[in-house]
Amino acid sequence: MHDLETLNTGGYASTTHLKLTCPLPSGLPPAILTLGATLTHLDLSGTGLSSLPSEFGTSLPNLRILFLSSNNFSTFPSVLAQCPSLEMIAFRSNRMTSIPEGSLPTKTLRWLILTDNQISTLPEDLGKCEKLEKCMLAGNQLSSLPESMATGCKNLALLRLSANRFETLPEWLFDLSKLAFLSFAGNPCLEKQTAAATAKAGTRFDLEKIEWKNLEMQETLGEGASGVISRGLWKQSAEYAEEVAIKVFKGGVTSDGAPRDEMAAVLAAGFHEGLITVLGKVVGHPDEVAEGAAAAEAEKEKKFRGGIVMQLIPEYYAALGLPPSFDTCSRDCFPEDASLSAAEALGMLTGIAGAAAHLHQRGIAHGDLYAHNILASKADRHALLGDFGAATIYGTDEEVYAGMEKLEVLAFAHLLEDVLGLIMREKEKKSTTQTPEAETAIVVAADAAPPAFRDSSELTEEEEEAIVQGLERLQKQCADPQVHSRPLFEDIAVELEDLVGFRGMMRIPIPNLS
């Protein structure tokens, strides 16, 4: 974080990143425009700005990333079209109402954030943004998309349309070959599906209603835009209490959508070994309000909007990946030392594919099927799909949304590609640490007397290579540019299970090969 006084006295003359949080009642400080030779990242969120000077674009030719969230821009500044290097623009929570034609930097824009505004129409030249990968539009007043996007936004990978006014979605949306992460919960077109899924959730399984007074909140485990997850105790009697995780949802629109829609999807998902188990729904919270005007006010003020009690995941489970960076945009990152054996990867992928199949059989798209939303245990070869913030209950009866699953299959293709990279890292580690004698010993032992149950350390190189080839074939199928030619998750899960069984992993007995 930087300060205005140092800026005005030339103290940041060669900086590449600048962030100010102080109020700027006089508008953009002129000193910022003198940083054009080096400035690439500028964050002026929460400073009260409502306009930019006409020379902004020409003065900052190297600016790549611009944050102007939580300000007072009612109109998207047309001057940004003159920024020759601008790739990312964020105008979250500005009460913005309009985006004039010709205001977007169409040749360079990759990432656009317009969450939580009052925008009712988008400019046709959005379709000229051929490099656009990520477009965040949740929490506006949109009821349509520019037709130009159908042919122009060829690289669009992630689109957030939740909490808008769509009565229907354009059919071409489900034909975009690179779109993998789509959410549109909280729109009029899904009211029937959401209501039906929510009602069915109460009858599909015995969901406990857990009194708030019987919960003891402990330390915070994590906090996101939609709420806070804490470790806690569920006191079921005077003698017994269970360790649990408690998520308290708050109001307000997140970059993915509304917390109420996330909670509805979590409850509608039901039980699966690849999902974090929901034990019950919180009732009797002191800030709990019924639906209606009071609930709308609670959502606006970001107050309590419900809670769930979940199984507490063991601490040895860890996120499989890291969220995308500015550079990777729509693809996950991974620690340099991260790696997986073929056996570990196959066990995790099989579980996640099964979880995704389970969700889509119930008409639910996860919307954010990324490695960073997967908790994994290498020792157990097990993974759990979490974070339903971008989930959409699209239903099973509407033919227009039948393409949702095959869009999400592309997200799984990306996951497969990432995991294959982690397998390659593991193989490289082995090649640098394992002696030729050790390799020979493993092969001989496996050939001489194969055990009934085998772990990854006992697989031969040929067996590991067969697994990798199988995953590579599946990845190509899931990434087919023809969206409707991609397999369904049910078929993906079967193919992975066949690989698991054939290779004798996950404690599945195998015959003696000698």
TrEMBL record:
Keywords: ATP-binding, Leucine-rich repeat, Nucleotide-binding, Repeat
SMART domains xref list: LRR_TYP
Binding positions for ATP per the UniProt entry: 247
InterPro entries: Kinase-like_dom_sf, Leu-rich_rpt, Leu-rich_rpt_typical-subtyp, LRR_dom_sf, LRR_domain-containing, Prot_kinase_dom, Protein_kinase_ATP_BS, Ser-Thr/Tyr_kinase_cat_dom
Residues covered by the Protein kinase domain: 215-500
A Pfam family reported for this protein in Swiss-Prot or TrEMBL: LRR_8
Keyword field contains ATP-binding: yes
UniProt xrefs under PANTHER family: PTHR48051, RAS SUPPRESSOR PROTEIN 1 (PTHR48051:SF1)
Stated name of the protein: Outer arm dynein light chain 1
Organism in which the protein naturally occurs: Neurospora intermedia
Taxonomic path: Eukaryota, Fungi, Dikarya, Ascomycota, Pezizomycotina
